[in-house]
Amino acid sequence: MLERLNQAMEHIERHLDQSVETAELARIAATSEYHLRRMFSALAGMPLSEYIRRRRLTLAGAEVLAGREVLLEIAVRYGYGSGEAFARAFRAMHGVGPGEARRTGAALNSQPRMAFRLTVEGSSSMRYRIVDKPDFTVVGLKARVPLVHAGPNQAIIDFVRGIDPRTLEGLEKLSDQEPHGIVAVCDDLDPSRAEGTELDYYQGVISSADAPDGATALPVPAGTWAVFTTSGPVPQAIQELWRDVFTEWFPSNPYRSRPGPEILRTRLSADRTEAEAELWLPVEHEHV
Q: What are the distances in angstroms from CA 130 to CA 144, 238, 256, 261, 285?
C-alpha cells in the first residue's frame, strides 16, 4: 500500500501545474478515493487537497522570487483564475502578498515533498478481528460536533454531560447485539478529516428496536467491520489507537476503509483516568 501511495505522490509532483484528480490518484494507489483521503490524512496530518495546495504555492513562491515571469502567468499556471485569488492564497500560506514578496525578497514558507515509509517497531501487537455483520440500527441521541484530532473534544464532553443518566439507562436496555452497551458513534464525517470539520455524533446503542421518543435512529447496512481493542489512559490511548490503525494496520493488511459510521465502545476505570476500548471501523477487502 505505501509503495502505491508513494507512486501517487510522484504523480502529484509531476502535475502540480496541471489538474490533479483524486480519482486518478486513487487509481495509481490501487484503492478507493474514500480510503485514499483517509489514509493520507492519517499519515500526513492534513487533508490531501491541502497538501496539493501547499505544494503548488511552494513552487509558485520560488517562481515569484525568481522574478522571470509576470505574477498573473504564475497564478494561472498553478490553477488560479485571477491575480486576486492567487494573492489571497499566497498571503494565507506565506504571510505576504506575491508582489511584496518579489519587491522585498521576503522569506517564504515551504511545504516539503512527502513520501511515506512503514517503521516496524515490533514491540507491540495490535489486537483486531474481522466481523461480517448484518444490517443494524444505531439508536441514541445525536449532536453535530467539530472534529478534534488530539486532546479532549469539548463539544462532545458538553453534549454527553447534558444527557439525563436515566435516558442512557433506558437506551442501554435496548442494546441487543455487538458492540454491547452504550457506544459513541461518528457518522457523516467530511472526507478530508480536517481539524474543525463537522460530524454527526451519537451516544446510544446498537439495537433492533425502534427509537424511543426523543431518540434518533441511524440505519446501517450489512457489511464487514474491523474491530480493534486497546487499553490505557484517557483520551490518549484511544486517539493513539485511531492513529495506529491508519499508520500501521491498513498499510500492512489487505483491507481499506469504506463509508459508514465508526463505533467506539469505552469502559472507564473507577477513577475515569483509564479505559478499555473497542473500535469498530467499516472496511472492505482491497480486491473488492
A: 29, 19, 12, 16, 11
Output the pLDDT for position 259: 92
Q: How far apart, in whole angstroms, are the C-alpha atoms of residue 236 and residue 231?
A: 10
Distance separating alpha carbons of residues 133 and 218, to the nearest angstrom: 15
Per-residue model confidence as pLDDT tens digits over 202-229: 999 999 888 898 899 999 999 999 999 9
pTM: 0.77
Predicted confidence at residue 22, as pLDDT, reads 94
Angle at which helix 48-66 crosses helix 2-14, to 10 degrees, equals 40
Residue 114 neighbours by CB under 8 Å, 6+ apart: 9, 44, 51
Cell of 217: 435512529
Q: Which residue, among 37, 62, 64, has the nearest Cα to 48 in the 3D structure?
A: 37
202: which 3 cell numbers? Answer: 451519537
Residue 33 makes CB contacts below 8 A (sequence gap 6+) with: 22, 23, 25, 26, 191
CA distance 68 to 215: 63
Containing 280, the helix (H) or strand (E) segment is strand 274-285
Q: How far is CA 232 from the centre of its chain?
A: 22
CA 55 to chain centre: 20
Distance (Å, whole) CA 210 – CA 110 = 54
Instruction: Could you list the beta-strand ranges (E) of 118-246.
Output: 127-133, 136-146, 183-187, 198-207, 216-220, 223-233
Q: How do residues 76-95 score in pLDDT, each as one tens digit?
A: 999 999 999 999 999 999 99
Please tell me the distance from the alpha carbon of residue 7 to that of residue 2, in angstroms, as a whole number: 9
Alpha helices, DSSP H only, in the chain?
2-14, 22-29, 33-44, 48-66, 71-77, 83-94, 98-104, 154-161, 165-172, 236-244, 250-252
